[in-house]
């Protein structure tokens, strides 16, 4: 095993580590006489009532601590590297890979392709299983790490090799069988590519994935996102409205069968399919508790229901006259406009105007808010009367920072537009309160 030094960056106030005078800059050497490879080894060893921790001070001196605590309590150490190991990059060249469709000149981190199973548990990232070694499978099973989120795309091994451009991609499906037999919970996704893994291939994939219920809890079907930067890449095409309707018919038919057999809908269509097919969004109960929310499955339904509940429960009061602008992607804009109309009927003092921002940066076919750039917002709003405030969804920004994908900051956009900007969490309650 690699000898990795785990440098401590922060000690949580009031923690055991603070009481023991462990400090930032110290390094973790071992836990329970075991060298730690990554964050999972660390937490596995720490989940005891009695632990022995060895810390190396910056001068090289090693201190051993014998700690008594509650079973799952953390001692309050934060490491410089949250994963406590190197990040594993993707070894595939998927025909639909979004990163391959990125323009040059963006910040370096946006070009990193991760395919790290550990991030699947920590952050909900989807992994292809192609770079999982035997020891990784054993650790998942031993540590009972779940759920793991798997980019399946197709259950046809030969086609999977072609789609991922990896001759081992078909064999990797056997690892999913191993996880199923060990009782590890999973969620799957299928990125659907027109003329490739749709039609009969989609039928096959769903049919074979159904056999993994109940440990495979859900599978989402999302359309491949195509930017305008596809020169030299596999010639993918957008789905038409009629083709989207056919995809939904397939999914709805399988949902009925799964409800009858297992009491769960299991297979889910992302919101884009309903907008493309010009069909109404399903009711809340169709989403099985929103297991695939981060994959764009049910986000609009949840937003609508949360907002309308907040609107119904809200109290009438004296509100100031105000004009509020909202900028969002073309996908969500019609629904935000519908909510704005309901809100203004209840609160006529407020004027809500919604701007559907066209994605010129990546191409008009990219319609989600999370892929909008600061420059597109600026270019399309600079001649508009924005009123008293401009609201932007938090999905536009880099996590934990006020920076857009193109590195424009919220402050720079505010100065350019000369308007107050508020960032709103992507849920209906917060949207209602922001308007109120």
Helix/strand/pairing class, anyone?
alpha/beta
Q: Describe the main β-sheet briefly.
A: 6 strands, antiparallel
Count of strand segments: 14
Shape: globular
Average predicted local confidence, pLDDT? 92
Distance between the termini: 56 Å
Strand content: 15-25%
In sequence order, what are the helices and strands, one letter per element?
EHEEHEEEHHEHHEHEHEHHEHEHEHEH
Helix content: 25-40%
Radius of gyration: 24 Å
Annotation field: number of helices:
14
List unreliable stretches of 5+ residues.
none
Please render the helix and strand layout as text.
Blueprint: E1 6-11, H1 16-19, E2 27-31, E3 34-35, H2 39-46, E4 50-56, E5 62-68, E6 77-79, H3 117-123, H4 134-143, E7 148-151, H5 157-164, H6 173-181, E8 186-192, H7 200-210, E9 216-223, H8 241-262, E10 267-269, H9 271-277, H10 299-313, E11 322-329, H11 333-346, E12 350-357, H12 374-381, E13 389-393, H13 410-417, E14 420-424, H14 428-435
Describe the overall structure.
The protein is an alpha/beta fold. Helix 8 crosses helix 9 (271-277). The mean pLDDT is 92. The strands form three sheets. Strands 1, 2, 3, 4, 5 and 6 form a six-stranded antiparallel sheet that branches. A four-stranded parallel sheet has the order 7-8-9-10. The protein starts with 5 loop residues before the first strand and ends with a helix. It contains 14 helices and 14 strands.
């Amino acid at each position: 095993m690699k000898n990795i030094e785990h440098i401590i960056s922060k000690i949580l106030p009031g923690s055991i580590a603070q009481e023991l005078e462990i400090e930032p800059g110290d390094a973790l050497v071992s836990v329970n006489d075991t060298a730690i490879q990554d964050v999972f080894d660390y937490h596995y060893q720490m989940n005891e009532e009695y632990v022995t921790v060895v810390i190396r001070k910056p001068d090289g001196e090693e201190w051993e601590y014998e700690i008594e605590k509650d079973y799952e309590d953390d001692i309050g150490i934060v490491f410089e590297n949250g994963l406590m190991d190197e990040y594993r990059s993707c070894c595939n060249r998927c025909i639909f890979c979004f990163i391959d469709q990125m323009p040059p000149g963006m910040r370096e981190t946006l070009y990193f392709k991760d395919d790290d199973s550990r991030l699947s548990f920590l952050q909900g990232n989807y992994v292809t299983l192609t770079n999982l070694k035997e020891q990784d499978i054993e650790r998942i099973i031993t540590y009972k790490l779940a759920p793991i989120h798997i980019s399946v795309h197709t259950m046809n091994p030969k086609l999977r090799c072609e789609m991922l451009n990896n001759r081992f991609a078909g064999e990797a499906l056997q690892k999913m069988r191993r996880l199923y037999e060990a009782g590890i919970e999973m969620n799957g996704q299928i990125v659907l590519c027109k003329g490739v893994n749709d039609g009969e291939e989609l039928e096959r994939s769903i049919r074979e994935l159904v056999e993994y219920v109940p440990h495979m809890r859900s599978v989402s079907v999302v359309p491949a996102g195509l930017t305008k930067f596809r020169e030299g890449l596999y010639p993918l095409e957008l789905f038409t409205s009629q083709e989207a309707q056919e995809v939904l018919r397939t999914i709805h038919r399988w949902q009925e069968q799964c409800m009858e057999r297992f009491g769960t809908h299991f297979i889910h269509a992302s919101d884009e399919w309903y907008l493309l097919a010009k069909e109404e969004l399903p009711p809340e109960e169709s989403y099985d508790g929103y297991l695939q929310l981060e994959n764009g499955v049910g986000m609009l339904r949840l937003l609508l229901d949360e907002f309308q509940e907040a609107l119904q429960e809200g109290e009438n009061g004296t509100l100031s006259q105000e004009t509020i602008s909202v900028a969002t992607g073309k996908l969500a804009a019609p629904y935000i406009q519908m909510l704005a109309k309901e809100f203004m009927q209840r609160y006529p003092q407020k004027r809500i105007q919604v701007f559907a921002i066209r994605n010129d940066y990546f191409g008009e076919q990219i319609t989600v808010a999370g892929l909008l750039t600061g420059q597109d917002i600026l270019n399309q709003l600079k001649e508009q009367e924005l009123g008293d405030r401009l609201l932007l969804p938090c999905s536009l920004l880099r996590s934990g920072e006020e920076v857009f994908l193109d590195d424009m900051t919220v402050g720079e956009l505010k100065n350019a537009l000369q308007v107050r900007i508020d960032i709103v969490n992507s849920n209906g309650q917060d949207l209602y309160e922001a308007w109120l």
